[in-house]
Amino acid sequence: MRHAGSFAVFVVTAAIGCAPPPPEQQTINDAAAALGGRDRILAVKTLVLEGEGTNGNLGQDMTMDATSQAFALSGYKRTIDVAASRARIEQTRTPNFAYFQGPQPQRQILGVDGDIGYNVAPNGTATRTSNAVAKDRRAEILHHPVTIVRAALDASAKLSNPREANGQRVVDITASSGQTFTLAIDGTTKLPTRVVSMTDNANLGDVAIETSFADYQDVSGLKLPARITTKTDKYTTADIRLTKQTVDADAGDLAAPAAAASAAPITGPPPATVTAEEIAKGIWFLAGQSHHSVLVEFADHLTLIEAPQNDTRALAVIAKAKELRPGKPLTHVVNTHHHFDHSGGLRAAVSEGLAVVTHDLNVPFFKEAMTRPHTIVPDALARNPKELKIEGVGEEKTLQDAAMTMTIYHIAGNPHADTLVMAYFPKERILVEADVFSPASAFQPYAANLLENITTRKLKVDRVVPIHGTIVPFGELLKTQTQTKTTS
Ligand SMILES: [Zn+2]
Ligand SMILES: [Zn+2]
After folding, report:
1. Which pTM does this prediction carry?
2. What is the mean pLDDT of the chain?
């Protein structure tokens, strides 16, 4: 009996030793083996990835779905200190389109050091990013095959939901930090094909950030992808081709610069300040910070031009409008174009019951944007859902009653966006526009087209009321063209 008992214990032990790991663990084990082995991955201290590529222009292209605008990236260098949770991207970006900051190459340094995100300007000035940006950059550290598999191998990581899709094996990973990721590996090569994590985007709500890996190469006993492509939702934001990859090189000093490390955390947008100036009877300039609005009084209702930036700004502007004319309902908001900084307050405006007036090309996108889930960071519309009322504008639309006449015109053919409209007040000879002429801006790549639109439409303008900058006489717009002629 004693002998038989020992034998039974031996059999059970052997059975445990040979039992295959659960499928979620098997996927990680296979990925680790394909990349160079568990021990090799755990030994990695730093990664330095150098190359070139492009950045997309998410939310700022000619239309929401356009992909013609990009920044060409040169001198791209992504350095990751794997164990210290520090990373930095250095790159020079050059716009392939008429950019408001000008055509010259622009050096960028974008970093994260633990909880602190930071940017370093070309002049060396470091600033702290918002906590939300820092969180996204922390997640980005694990958007690489080596770092995500290393994190999944950690004893405190939780693996779940193993599945197969399109010839790939997929597993969810909760890292020791608490961040969650989805990893997919190729069913044949077992090499990671993509990492996905969810984040909040003020305009798009809950979005997947998906990084895809291709063109694996042998580097210092590891397989590393030479092509890394990143999407936010369905929009490609980065496409990088690596020409030099170094494992365990001296990563340099990746600590957050002192100016950023000592700055107060930025937990959200700054409080809104809204000033009100009546620039003609029934027309108020609602300014105060970087993005302005204009309030228009009709006989029995009010219309707002622009709900910019975010909930904070838009709700403050709406509150100011109600304070100025408490007896009249604020019923409409005119959107100048789809760009995220100009449409970021539309969801808040819809939550306040305002109907949206916008160029026809924006209607499908705004319909989608108003119904997208915002569960990660619930915004005003998520907390107070309302049905979208939307009116498209083609070439022009006149809104008129006994008290006010305002015509909304498409700004046709402008290189800034295909979705632009301007508001014209014929009696007051006022023109409201966004981005195509920002007084005092060093570059005016869109002003010639604005003038063309004004001439073609035979508008008589005395004052230009910009969404950025101060109100100026029409002559200031004309000067942008003589200045261009002088300097060219
Ligand atoms: Zn714009
Ligand atoms: Zn703008």
Report:
1. 0.93
2. 95
